[in-house]
Amino acid sequence: MREYGKIYRYLDCLRKFINMPVNLTAPDPASLLPVKGVELGFAEANIRKTNRKDLLVMRLAPESRVAGVFTQNRFCAAPVLVCKDHLAAGKGIRALVVNTGNANAGTGEEGLMRARRTCEALAGLLNIADHQVLPFSTGVIMEPLPIDRVVAGLPSCVDNLREDNWAHAAEAIMTTDIVAKAASRKIQLGGKTITITGIAKGSGMIHPNMATMLGYVATDAVVAQPALEAMIRHAVNRSFNCITVDGDTSTNDSLIFIASGQAGNAEITEQSADYVALRDALTEIAAVLAQAIVRDGEGATKFMTIEVEGGKDEAECRKVGYAIARSPLVKTAFFASDPNLGRILAAVGYAGIDDLDVSLMQLYLDDVLVAENGGRASSYQEADGQRVMKQAEITVRVHLGRGVAEATVWTCDFSYDYVKINADYRS
Amino acid sequence: MREYGKIYRYLDCLRKFINMPVNLTAPDPASLLPVKGVELGFAEANIRKTNRKDLLVMRLAPESRVAGVFTQNRFCAAPVLVCKDHLAAGKGIRALVVNTGNANAGTGEEGLMRARRTCEALAGLLNIADHQVLPFSTGVIMEPLPIDRVVAGLPSCVDNLREDNWAHAAEAIMTTDIVAKAASRKIQLGGKTITITGIAKGSGMIHPNMATMLGYVATDAVVAQPALEAMIRHAVNRSFNCITVDGDTSTNDSLIFIASGQAGNAEITEQSADYVALRDALTEIAAVLAQAIVRDGEGATKFMTIEVEGGKDEAECRKVGYAIARSPLVKTAFFASDPNLGRILAAVGYAGIDDLDVSLMQLYLDDVLVAENGGRASSYQEADGQRVMKQAEITVRVHLGRGVAEATVWTCDFSYDYVKINADYRS
Q1: Interface touch A73/B209, C-beta < 8 Å
Q2: Interface ipTM above 0.85
Q3: Engineered SS bond to A288: which of A4, A183, B11, B69, CB 3.0-4.6 Å?
């Protein structure tokens, strides 16, 4: 490795050209709908590199409700701790600030102070309270956040706050992402048009520790706080909690839902007739963003949907789905288009269901039944498996034969490029 | 991948020359001591490939005691099920038979019949009962065991049974292993010389599904059955259960202890003064063999010892050790000699200790303190971390600051070769 370092660094420059995401392109800026009450402003703050957008501010209307879910990693980053504090304070959130280039993780007490200093600086510019700001960071771990550069960049962000800046915002939060990730849609609720727009970043975890999945989904609907929190719990289990690129979870992962309260609809509670419609529309945008992260997985050449059904409960279905999705052997077999079924069965076998009866299990690749009765299906022809494995998008379906619960996991394959990207020096 | 398949297959032929195990060479046959009461015979049975030893028989003296531990994978292979049956029958084990080239896993009822047929054929040749034979298989999954070739090869194995065949035996069980794995030692117990010799195979999981770790450790000591079973439980937790190459566990993993009862010592029970000495000597051989499997890990360029201490119990230390050892990001950073500490801390953070206080944790690379108080250690210099990371053998030491329990995990790095080897077609 050491002697090839220079060559790999040159090759890495070519990554954006030779290593395309799986069926994913940057969104058309015109397709990203402004959300009334949500303004976005960005800056080039030189946090780690020059000549790139690396700082984003979102200003929210006073009526806004905000809900968040965060990484379960015990080594969670300073901004995650501050976000939880500020949400718990219940004073209302009026602004978000996101920097790239530095994750402010593994930075101890000093890191907490710098995350709070960021909030304080933005609060001063916007004339709101420190507790009304949520901070987010993504980038290298264990290096001090260059707080002076963050603070110096904030006025430019505030100067260009606009409701139609979503495409710039999606770019401003990118790290090793090859393409920006954003999606938008309108729905009708009780005679009112409701807009939903979301952005996300993440491409696996990550070239030189540019870790972290961040997702922000905003709507102009009027939503009660408990309803918004119920919606994000529902959505995260069907979106960001369904994806794995390499199984490593980050110190900074965050998903935020914003309801700016500007659409003039009757406030939506969990009892409202419109509750499910809005929840499902938010979930759909979150799922599109989460899948985009997998499609842009480091070195990814294939997108796999792992559907596990027939389980006793959702938790065990998820265990099986993740065991398959995380297995380096399964992921390299997909890269090679090799219908190496034993690897999938072995992963099911070690997923942790102690009383699994493998003779009741069925395994499908798309619609091809490949295994049942504890072994290869009698109808299975290797050519059929081979045909499916050559596709860029593949569904692996496992029926556990134990119950009626189900879960879905999305993942990508492991390629040479994954190792190359992640073995490269921090530079 | 598809268009490069041919080139990769050529390159793969070179693997044995360009991709050397980490500080591991084949054992000197003269160093492998015969164990009285244990004879070994091998054959070239053409099970999957020609011109290679692929069938091994071990014949044991009637006084032998045998204990085994097996994969926890629910998709365990037919021979594993038969081994458990035959050990449970309690009729005494008189022979073992190991084939490579085919794992007889994911083969349903027919696979069980073929594993039993193998035992029956060997029992007939040795004039013992079917239940006195343990069968083992390693190789491709989900293909029918070519039982006729196995049975046809058995007479040659029996014809060349010898106590000094350990080096051949180590070769006969190899699959993608680059070097044979074997170790031997003598100890004195109560005035008697006791010999211990063991062999193992495995190199990660695995070029075209040549999965499975197998280990066989034999001593000529007289050992009571309950004592031998206590010894193997002790040993497996300090050897084969401490290793991970890629985190995938196989359908066929097995470790067997044999005490042939020929050394003339007083029978060793759990109460014997000599119990601990013999247990520790068997454990040492098992650990050497387990480490050899990691050193020969697919594409491995480095050998890492993950020591986790200061935990509340051994289980949580093991969780943390495996989280680090299994992380693709940590493994690629080691390959790159990059002291990318954030990746190790992130792995500790998601290992599953919900009440971990990261501010009490310390992280060392060899003797270099790199992190404490939730962040980078103030004394840490990147040059020190870099120096350690360039070594071929590295110790990662994590102190959790919660208690006095500890655990050790051995692993290797992830290189380009890992992906190449595992993406290659079954051939």
Answers
A1: no
A2: no
A3: A183
pLDDT tens-digit readout, A382-397: 899 999 999 999 999 9
Q: Based on C-alpha coordinates, what's the Rg of chain B?
A: 22
pLDDT (average), residues B186-202: 95
User: Active-site residues of B: which are they?
Assistant: 212
Q: Domain B303-423 classified CATH 3.30.300.130?
A: no
Q: Does B162 touch chain A (CB under 8 A)?
A: no
**DSSP H/E element including B405:** strand B405-412
CB A408 within 8 A of CB B319: no
B272 CB-near residues (< 8 Å, 6+ apart): B227, B266
Tell me which chain B residues have a C-beta less than 8 angstroms from the C-beta of A336.
Answer: 1, 422-425
Residue A360's closest chain B neighbor by CA? B108
pLDDT tens for residues B305-338? 999 999 999 999 999 998 998 888 888 888 888 8
* Contact (CB<8Å) A329/B206: yes
What's residue B211's pLDDT? 52
Question: Which single residue is written with the structure tokens 């290096």?
Answer: A143
Q: The tokens of A136 are what?
A: 């987010």
Q: What is the pLDDT of residues B19-52, one digit of tens each?
A: 678 888 888 999 999 999 999 999 999 999 999 9
Q: Is residue B74 helix, strand or coil?
A: coil
Of A176, A246, A152, A231, the residue nearest A198 (C-alpha) = A231
CB pairs under 8 A between A and B: 235
Q: What is the pLDDT of residues A219-251, one digit of tens each?
A: 999 999 999 999 999 999 899 888 876 666 778
The one-letter amino acid at B133: V
pLDDT tens digits, one per residue of B82-116: 999 999 999 999 999 999 999 999 888 999 999 99
Q: Which of B250, B358, B416 sits opposite A419 (nearest CB)?
A: B416
DSSP state of B21: -
Query: How does pLDDT run across A263-319, given as a tens digit for each residue?
Result: 999 999 999 999 999 999 999 999 999 999 888 887 788 999 999 999 999 999 999
B47 token code pair: 């099970």
Q: What is the pLDDT of residue B330?
A: 87
The mean of the pLDDT values for chain A is 89
**How many angstroms away from the CA of B26 is the closest CA of chain A?**
25
* Cβ B282 vs Cβ B231: under 8 Å: yes
Residue A327 has its nearest CB partner, among B248, B340, B356, at B248
pLDDT of amino acid B3: 40
CA dist A138 and A43 (Å) reads: 15
Catalytic residue ranges of A: 212
Comparing CA positions, the residue from A417, A261, A410 lying closest to residue A322 is A410
Grade residue A417 by pLDDT with cuts at 50, 70 and 90: low
Q: Which amino acid is at B123?
A: A
| Binding site, annotated residues of A for substrate | 175, 201, 212, 298, 422, 427
- CATH superfamily of the domain spanning A21-295: L-amino peptidase D-ALA esterase/amidase (3.60.70.12)
